[in-house]
Amino acid sequence: MPSLPCAELHLHIEGTLEPELIFTLAARNGIRLPYADTADLADRYAFTDLQSFLDLYYANMDVLRTEADFTDMTRAYLRRTAAAGVRHAEIMMDPQAHLARGIALETCVGGVAAALSTSEADYGISTSLIAAFLRDRPAAEALAVLRDLLAMEAPIIGIGLDSAEVGYPPSLFAEVYDVARAAGLKCIAHAGEEGPPGYVREALDILRVDRLDHGIRCLEDEALVQRLVADQVPLTVCPLSNVRLRAVATLRDHPLPAMLARGLNVSVNSDDPAYFGGYVDDNFSALRQSFGLGVDDLATLAANSFRSAFISGERRAALLAEVEAWRSAPGAAGVA
Ligand code: HPA
Ligand SMILES: [Zn+2]
């Protein structure tokens, strides 16, 4: 069966650091890791909540020191995700996590951007970059970093908001989003992963986001669901992530089929694939196994991903045509 062509819209590039690459980069940079080997590291990927994951995610970033490290990490993701069927990727990175370790913006942003600049030629994937701000650090710091990114004309198309959610409502970042929007950047934010539906409302009303990352807890607020359906606000859902971080008990309990049935504009994404048990194809496979999603549901999810991407109308039409070709491909009949 040919892979389902889709866009990946919720992906933290630092969350694509596989254990093998962590060890390779550590050796290259003369860093001693606190793990015996890759299996010992992978054994620690048993998370109890978002924070337990973030602790390891930030610790492992320490192996990223040079521009080449960031480029190699990004290329490894692009190579793997091309095999998953991804045709377009909007990739988030966390500049503050690197600045806090003494890594210059030019190094981290330049390294990721270098890989993205040739992604179409190298892997057949169009790409763009999103700078995400850490909500558990001061908004003033995010604003300063945003101004630095704008001053250096960093090749970003938008901003995001991630890291520990509960206790850090979107409203704290109103000014950051106002500045970003005025600069012509797209506005995206994590909301409703662990945080309450009120955070989703704040992201819509105060940050005026173009797209929401996760948003699954919107289901606890019927009026909010109706608004998200009416406005077709894109929700980038990450099923395996939600299971690993215990936002849902098991994949069978995941609300994605219910969200689709309600007419919400949901897409399937991998979030931090090296940590959560798989890339976007693994997420689709797991969903098929758990819910028996058929060709039409899968094609809707893929079409939603292209509808929710920040791409030209021409590119969107071409990618949606690929979904229709996949839908009618004889091999696809075996999917359900
Ligand atoms: O899954 C996530 N949630 C919030 N912040 C993050 N930063 C990296 N991954 C995540
Ligand atoms: Zn995320």
Task: Please give a quick description of this structure.
The protein has 17 helices and 8 strands. The chain is α/β, with parallel strands linked by helices and 336 residues long.
Radius of gyration: 19 Å
CATH superfamily: Metal-dependent hydrolases
> What is the CATH C-level name?
Alpha Beta
Shape designation: globular
Average pLDDT works out at 96
Distance between the termini: 12 Å
Beta-strand content estimate: 5-15%
> Sheet bearing the most strands, described?
8 strands, parallel
Q: In which range does the helix fraction lie?
A: 40-55%
Number of strands: 8
Write the CATH architecture name: Alpha-Beta Barrel
Summed up, the helix count is 17
- List the domain count as a whole number: 1
Bound molecules: hypoxanthine, zinc ion
Summing up helix and strand content along with how strands pair, one would put the structural category as: alpha/beta
- The largest sheet has its strands arranged as 1-2-3-4-5-6-7-8
Q: Would you identify the regions where 5 or more consecutive residues have pLDDT less than 50?
A: 332-336
- Give me the CATH fold name: TIM Barrel
Element order, helices and strands? EHHHHEHHHEHEHEHEHEHHEHHHH
Binding site for substrate: 272
Family: Belongs to the metallo-dependent hydrolases superfamily. Adenosine and AMP deaminases family. Adenine deaminase type 2 subfamily.
Protein name: Adenine deaminase
Site (Important for catalytic activity): 214
